[in-house]
């Protein structure tokens, strides 16, 4: 499984409308996200329009290809593109990926393995 986190900037003057457009998202777009293999998908917004997104997937390249080919996702992304600062492509293709530097479960598992190896000596 891959964890993906990304950042975009929403135009501050359109932030309220952007939030409203996600309450709720079109049912057919929700179905496409799920069909693409993305799960545990969340968006977070901060003052000034900073948007952070997170999802999990088994194959992000395949998920992105599925959504790129989807007419429903193309329509959604076309409608969403006006909300973002400085994008030259679809928002789902132009988001800045963030590098994961810490994950609790991974480190707990590694610490448990190290501890178990130490106990075996």
Structure in words:
The chain is α+β, with helices and mostly antiparallel strands. It has one domain (2-120): Alpha-Beta Plaits (2-Layer Sandwich). Helices cover 48% and strands 21% of the residues. It contains 6 helices and 4 strands; from the N terminus they run E-H-H-E-E-H-H-H-E-H. It has helices spanning 15-21, 27-36, 60-69, 71-80, 91-94, 104-120, and strands spanning 2-9, 39-45, 50-57, 96-98. A 4-stranded antiparallel sheet has the order 2-3-1-4, with no helix packed on it. Strand 2 and strand 3 (50-57) form a beta hairpin. Helix 2 (27-36) runs antiparallel to helix 3 (60-69). The mean pLDDT is 93. Pfam families: rhaM (PF05336). This is L-rhamnose mutarotase. It comes from Microbacterium candidum. InterPro entries: Dimeric_a/b-barrel, Rham/fucose_mutarotase.
Short description:
InterPro entries: Dimeric_a/b-barrel (IPR011008), Rham/fucose_mutarotase (IPR008000). It is built from six helices and four strands, in the order βααββαααβα.
Secondary-structure-derived class: alpha+beta
Task: Identify low-pLDDT runs.
Answer: none
Q: Please indicate the count of domains.
A: 1
Fraction in helix: 40-55%
Radius of gyration: 18 Å
Under CATH at level 1, the class stands as Alpha Beta
Please describe the biggest sheet, giving its number of strands, its sense, and whether it closes into a barrel. 4 strands, antiparallel
Q: Helix and strand string, N-terminal first?
A: EHHEEHHHEH
Using the alpha-carbon principal axes, give the shape: elongated
Tell me the strand order in the biggest sheet: 2-3-1-4
Number of strands: 4
CATH topology: Alpha-Beta Plaits
Number of helices: 6
The assigned CATH architecture is 2-Layer Sandwich
């Amino acid at each position: 499984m891959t964890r993906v986190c990304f950042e975009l900037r929403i135009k501050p003057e359109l932030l309220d409308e952007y939030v409203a457009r996600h309450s709720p998202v079109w049912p057919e777009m929700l179905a496409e996200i799920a069909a693409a293999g993305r799960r545990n998908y969340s968006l977070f917004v901060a003052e000034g329009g900073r948007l952070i997104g997170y999802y999990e997937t088994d194959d992000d390249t395949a998920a992105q290809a599925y959504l790129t080919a989807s007419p429903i996702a193309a329509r959604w992304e076309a409608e969403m593109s006006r909300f973002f600062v400085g994008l030259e492509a679809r928002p789902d293709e132009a988001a800045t990926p963030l590098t994961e530097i810490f994950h609790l479960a991974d480190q707990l598992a590694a610490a448990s393995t190290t501890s178990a190896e130490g106990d075996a000596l």
